[in-house]
Amino acid sequence: MTLNSLGIVDNLVIVELGPKVSKVVVMVGFHERGIEEELRPGIVMVAEIMATVIAPEDFSPAEDAETLKKAFQGLYSILSHGWGTDEKAVISILGYRNLSQRRLIREAYREIYREDLFSELQSEFSGHLEKALTHWILDPVDHVALLVHSELRKLNPNHGVIAEIACIRSPEDLLAVKRAYRSRYRRSMEEDVASLTSGNARKILVALASPFRFDGDEISEQTAVSEASILHEEIHGIDRNLEETVRILSTRSKAQLNATFNHYRDIYNTSITKVI
């Protein structure tokens, strides 16, 4: 079984098992020896149960919503485990549906019970499992908006995460994330970035979050090498005014930035998001 990594969020690795299989979130810890599962006893390993599963074409969002509600109430697990949310039942629904199907389930749940499935999952679960389950029912842009919002409010935020989100997405994708952020939090992403960061981090992140960057496929390797050097000199320089850094990050296309970042890593043996 091959796991293709789609991304990492905190301790969650998002993987895809195949073109016809739902995306899966595996809760893991990172160790020098490799990947080590951190699932509580009684929870079937998500990657294992998803290995041969194809999301059904014929399904009922209303029936799935009812199953989830009963699972939250503990009606499936009471006979064998006592009161409490039936975690396996929840995973058996959300883990066996694709994104569009989970969207319909969330809509059906809201219509039938006048409650938001996302909020229910947050209240019923915690830790890695809560993050995995809530990720399953969010649209990708909503998940990125949530990630930015959460990262900005950490005691020691990783600004590289936010910079990477802004740099590697197309202008259209970034605009969709900003719209999702405003819809979810009733504030603009640029406003929060400006108010919750300071110093050089603010200069860079506000510039990244604000413009509608040119989106072309053309790449100049010569420019990429030159600007990788400029970024390194400014970021590690004495005065660190970052004027050129802001210009590069806020105006270059996604393709050009990727080329520059690749050269930066090759030349200086580190990712630029680690030094911003």
Automatic annotation (TrEMBL):
<feature type="binding site">
    <location>
        <position position="82"/>
    </location>
    <ligand>
        <name>Ca(2+)</name>
    </ligand>
</feature>
<keyword id="KW-0111">Calcium/phospholipid-binding</keyword>
<dbReference type="InterPro" id="IPR009118">
    <property type="entry name" value="AnnexinD_plant"/>
</dbReference>
<dbReference type="GO" id="GO:0009414">
    <property type="term" value="P:response to water deprivation"/>
</dbReference>
<dbReference type="InterPro" id="IPR001464">
    <property type="entry name" value="Annexin"/>
</dbReference>
<feature type="binding site">
    <location>
        <position position="124"/>
    </location>
    <ligand>
        <name>Ca(2+)</name>
    </ligand>
</feature>
<keyword id="KW-0677">Repeat</keyword>
<dbReference type="InterPro" id="IPR037104">
    <property type="entry name" value="Annexin_sf"/>
</dbReference>
<dbReference type="GO" id="GO:0005886">
    <property type="term" value="C:plasma membrane"/>
</dbReference>
<dbReference type="InterPro" id="IPR018502">
    <property type="entry name" value="Annexin_repeat"/>
</dbReference>
<keyword id="KW-0041">Annexin</keyword>
<dbReference type="GO" id="GO:0005544">
    <property type="term" value="F:calcium-dependent phospholipid binding"/>
</dbReference>
<protein>
    <recommendedName>
        <fullName>Annexin</fullName>
    </recommendedName>
</protein>
<feature type="binding site">
    <location>
        <position position="84"/>
    </location>
    <ligand>
        <name>Ca(2+)</name>
    </ligand>
</feature>
<keyword id="KW-0479">Metal-binding</keyword>
<dbReference type="GO" id="GO:0005509">
    <property type="term" value="F:calcium ion binding"/>
</dbReference>
<dbReference type="GO" id="GO:0009409">
    <property type="term" value="P:response to cold"/>
</dbReference>
<dbReference type="GO" id="GO:0009408">
    <property type="term" value="P:response to heat"/>
</dbReference>
<dbReference type="GO" id="GO:0001786">
    <property type="term" value="F:phosphatidylserine binding"/>
</dbReference>
<dbReference type="Pfam" id="PF00191">
    <property type="entry name" value="Annexin"/>
</dbReference>
<keyword id="KW-0106">Calcium</keyword>
<dbReference type="GO" id="GO:0009651">
    <property type="term" value="P:response to salt stress"/>
</dbReference>
<feature type="binding site">
    <location>
        <position position="72"/>
    </location>
    <ligand>
        <name>Ca(2+)</name>
    </ligand>
</feature>
<dbReference type="GO" id="GO:0005737">
    <property type="term" value="C:cytoplasm"/>
</dbReference>
